[in-house]
Design brief:
- The complex is a heterodimer of chains A (about 550) and B (about 350).
- Chain A is of the alpha+beta class.
- About 5% of the residues of chain A have low confidence.
- Chain B is mainly alpha-helical and about 350 residues long.
- Helix content of chain B is about 60%, strand content about 5%.
- Chain B has a two-stranded antiparallel sheet.
- Chain B is elongated and about 80 Å long.
- The N terminus of chain B is likely disordered.
- Classes of the chains: A alpha+beta (about 550), B mainly alpha (about 350).
- At the A-B interface, helix 8, helix 10, helix 12 and strand 15 of A face helix 6 of B.
């Protein structure tokens, strides 16, 4: 009897211990486990790890989960990932009638990773720090927020257009003029809060604390760094922001994509950099050996050939239409090793206003009609003209341009590719003196807003240098529509979706550009990671806080 | 330290100073056989040099026939893309370029004999056209180098003094830059804007751009040793004799000195040619030479690099052709040097 009692007692203790262990860190709702360490490879080192300085996807992946802004995006795949949600603010901004004042309130009880309480004034300090460290995208703020330019130029000691009240947590932002995408600006990872008193210079290894599920640590510049779980974050109970499963993520820089892909294929590392291209020679092997842990993910981006509408031959609408008739998008998809989704509209899928109508000059996945295009070129009176096709010396962009030049020759032009270094390409074609006739261009969204794409077809973008409207498109209808649509707040975009769609259909019909697709990035992981629960954000790519071990 | 202006420059082979000067009045060697005939006899005995010279000539002939091959055998052009086309090889239909972007390998038939590249272009056709371009650049560059190096060497060595100072220091300046770096710098900038010298303008895509660059950067490599020879020759008795007879500077340079450095120039030609082809390949590989879509062996190698594991033929075939052509002309060049300069003292410094 006593023996039985001891056995029961032992069994009870074992069961209790099992329950405690399970509660401490085993299965989670996603089917994976909590805890553990993953190894991530990045092909390119982040430009910066300082939250107010970084401006690349490699930099955004760690900072986005370590420094949460007042508003942010859902940590999900597209299209849900395009939705702006409250971050450290209690709700999305209240926008005034004249769309020039944004009111937000900070959540109560927030603390930075070092335990310092978060104050409303930290937001103002963060924005000022972002300007002082000279973030590459600071013009999104200086062009819009009242007093930000004066602060940038040293004419003011603070940004007069931002007022805060630490007691109530109220934050008010005044804009010089309405800017519909300003909520998206507030959601930039660079707006992730840091405490007042943080150094006003970019930090390399000693980063300021943030509010987020992870903290960046152990930085060896250009070689490695880690993110570790922030123990204080889960207790903040911020809805819709994952608290993270992994304890630690070690990131190594591996510039050789061949080695990078081989290591993930062989499970020696857990993730291939989504900003890199899987070497074409390895794609068949990856597709066959790792089909359950490899997937191309389409990101909102537009790859296109611009055509200068101010100079021959593409100042002729029929000539531009002929190019759109002739283009063989599946051919370009093959040049991208399959990592391109054929598209014909300027606004990509996933962006409000992307038309669901048929392409005006043949199906997006059609092979083009060379004979018809040749006839159209004849009809336009531009046949035989010389065309210089500009492109970058960078695979597969070089191959796109060589294909395009051959296509133009086939339809009746004398086309020659002009390929220059990728580091000088965009400044060169954006210089009015170059006056490029046609060439390669692409756009990957800064934020999910159609206005971000239409910057490239806006006549206001035409400048003598750093022009981004490479085709010099200056169409009164486009300008009229943009004047109306650009100011619609991001949170109300759905109300004008049909108008954006009509504008995009108009642009496709006028053949101002020849769009051929949206880029796809590789979601490629090791066997150790739960592939299905790992999310890829349409702008910031891998969301490490959604990863868990199987 | 005083410098004897008549002394050959460092590295200049003293053996190049002919023991029997080939003046206008004295062009016959021993036993009534001229030095060039003697050289031809020596060259004929060098079967290895002749065999490799033959290989080089075969390559040149093949490359010259590129348009015929493209039109009548491959039925395409070097720049025609066939990305989404299909081909039938021994009854089986396959993609020229697979959906994953992998081009087909050699078919050993008329179409795509050596396979396709990532744009679905026929590698055999591009190889032959690439050879034409590489050889054309090599020939033009060698001509430019020889022409300018000879003129500069004659002027600097004959007039000495200020002329020599200016020309020699200019050569030193060019020589101070590593050839490839200088080639890349010039190639990149000229490929963008072309070359416009008023009467003479060349577009950035022209083959003349890499030819001019290569020809230009190699001038000092040939001009300096030749200058040394001219410095020695101008002090010889036959030059003094010509001067005493009232011959002017131009006549002395063209009729007395030039014939005596001609054998050295001939020795240099194949060696410069091999170097020019190699430099063209290096520049094109780095994107600073022949511009796409003009093929060249160098840019064909560069294009195939990213596909080495799955389409090795894209790199190996142009690489092999380049090696064979350069080996052919180098070994033939060695034979020419052995024939004209048996003591083998001409060496190109790299």
């Amino acid at each position: 009897m006593r023996k039985l009692g001891r056995l029961l007692l032992l069994g009870g203790i074992t069961a209790l211990a099992g329950l405690i262990l399970a509660a401490c860190g085993s299965s989670s709702s996603g089917g994976g486990t909590n805890g553990g360490t993953a190894t991530v490879l990045q092909g390119t080192a982040p430009d910066y790890l300082d939250p107010q300085e970084e401006y690349t996807t490699q930099g955004a992946e760690p900072t986005w989960i370590s420094y949460i802004p007042l508003v942010t995006y859902k940590a999900e795949n597209a299209p849900a990932g395009n939705q702006v949600i409250p971050g450290l603010a209690t709700a999305l901004p209240q926008i005034s009638q004249d769309q020039k004042t944004y009111d937000l309130t900070l959540r109560k009880g927030l603390v930075f990773s070092d335990g310092t309480p978060v104050k409303a004034s930290d937001f103002k300090c963060t924005v000022e720090r972002m300007i002082k460290v000279n973030w590459g995208g600071k013009s999104f703020v200086t062009d819009n927020v009242t007093g930000a330019t004066d602060y940038d130029e040293g004419k003011a000691n603070d940004i007069s257009g931002i007022t805060t009240d630490d007691a109530s947590g109220k934050i008010t932002i005044h804009l010089d003029k309405p800017y519909g995408a300003f909520t998206n600006v507030l959601a930039f990872p660079e707006m992730g809060l840091v405490p007042c008193g943080s150094p006003m210079t970019g930090q390399t290894t000693n980063l300021p604390p943030g509010v987020g599920p992870y903290m960046i640590t152990d930085i060896v510049p250009n070689k490695s760094y880690s993110v570790v779980k922030n123990p204080k974050f889960a207790g903040l109970n911020i809805p819709d922001i994952p608290t993270g499963h992994l304890d630690r993520i070690n990131v190594k820089i591996e510039s050789n994509t061949q080695t990078e892909a081989q290591q993930v294929l062989n499970n020696q590392a857990d993730n291939f950099d989504a900003g890199d291209t899987v070497p074409p020679s390895l794609v068949p092997q990856v597709q066959s050996q790792a089909s359950d842990r490899f997937e191309p993910v389409t990101i909102p981006s537009t790859f296109y050939f611009f055509m200068n509408v101010q100079i021959p031959p593409f100042n002729n609408e029929i000539a531009r239409q002929a190019v759109n008739v002739a283009i063989d998008r599946p051919a370009l998809q093959r040049l991208a090793s399959g990592f391109l989704k054929p598209e014909c509209f300027f606004l990509p899928e996933g962006i409000v206003g992307h038309p669901d109508s048929a392409c005006p000059y043949g199906a997006a996945d059609g092979h083009g009609d060379i004979a018809k295009a040749k006839q159209m070129v004849q009809q336009s009176g531009t046949a035989g003209q010389s065309v210089t096709v500009w492109g970058e010396q960078r695979a597969p962009r070089t191959q796109y341009v060589e294909y395009y030049a051959d296509l133009l020759n086939k339809i009746g032009y004398k086309a020659t590719p002009k390929l220059i270094s990728d580091t000088t390409y965009f400044p060169t074609i954006g210089n009015a003196k170059t006056a490029p006739q046609t060439g390669f261009a692409d756009w990957i969204q800064d934020f999910p807003n159609p206005a971000d794409f239409y910057l490239l077809l806006d006549a206001k973008s035409i400048q003598p240098v750093n022009n981004e409207n490479f085709g010099n498109v200056n169409d009164p209808f486009i300008q009229q529509q943009l004047a109306k649509l650009e100011n619609v707040p991001s949170t109300q975009l759905d109300s004008v979706a049909s108008q954006w769609q009509a504008l995009d259909e108009y642009v496709a019909k006028k053949a101002y550009v020849t769009v051929y697709g949206s880029e796809q990035v590789p979601k490629f992981m090791s066997d150790r990671i739960d592939f299905d629960s790992a999310q890829v954000h349409p702008t910031y790519l891998n969301i490490w806080s959604t990863w868990q071990l199987k | 330290m005083a410098v004897d202006p008549t002394a050959p420059s460092p590295g200049v082979p003293a053996a190049l100073e002919p023991e029997t000067p080939l003046g206008s009045s004295e062009r016959q060697g021993e036993g009534g056989v001229g030095p060039y005939k003697l050289a031809v006899r020596r060259l004929r005995r060098n079967k290895t040099a002749l065999a490799f010279g033959g290989i080089f000539l075969v390559i040149v002939a093949m490359c010259l026939c590129a348009p015929l091959y493209a039109k009548h055998v491959a039925h395409t052009t070097p720049s025609a893309n066939h990305i989404t086309d299909e081909i039938t090889v021994r009854g089986k239909t396959k993609d020229v370029v697979s959906p994953a972007g992998i081009p087909t390998g050699p078919t050993w038939t008329g179409k795509f004999l050596l396979g396709a590249d990532s744009n679905g272009r026929d590698v055999a056709v591009r190889l032959l056209y690439g050879g034409r371009n590489s050889l054309e650049v090599g020939f033009i560059a060698t001509f430019i180098t020889c022409l300018f190096a000879t003129i500069i060497a004659l002027l600097a060595g004959y007039f000495r003094g200020l002329t020599d100072g200016i020309l020699s220091r200019s050569m030193d300046l060019i020589w101070a830059f590593p050839v490839v770096i200088l080639g890349i710098a010039l190639g990149t900038s000229l490929a963008l804007g072309g070359l416009d010298l008023g009467l003479f303008s060349v577009s950035g895509n022209s083959l003349w751009i890499p030819a001019l660059i290569i020809g230009f950067v190699y001038v000092p490599y040939m001009a300096k040793p030749l200058r040394g020879q001219v410095l020695g020759l101008r002090e010889k008795e036959f030059v003094e004799a010509a001067r005493a007879q009232g011959a002017g500077n131009l006549r002395i340079m063209s009729h007395e000195i030039l014939p005596n450095i001609a054998s050295s120039v001939i020795v240099f030609i194949p060696l410069m040619m091999a170097n020019a082809i190699l430099l063209e390949a290096a520049l094109s590989y780095l994107g600073a030479g022949i511009q796409p879509q003009n093929p060249s062996w160098g840019n064909l190698i560069g294009d195939g690099l990213s596909l080495i594991p799955s389409a090795m033929h894209l790199t190996l075939i142009p690489g092999g052709m380049l090696v064979l052509a350069v080996l052919g002309i180098n070994i033939f060049g060695d034979g020419v040097r052995d024939a004209l300069d048996p003591r083998a003292e001409i060496r190109i410094e790299h």
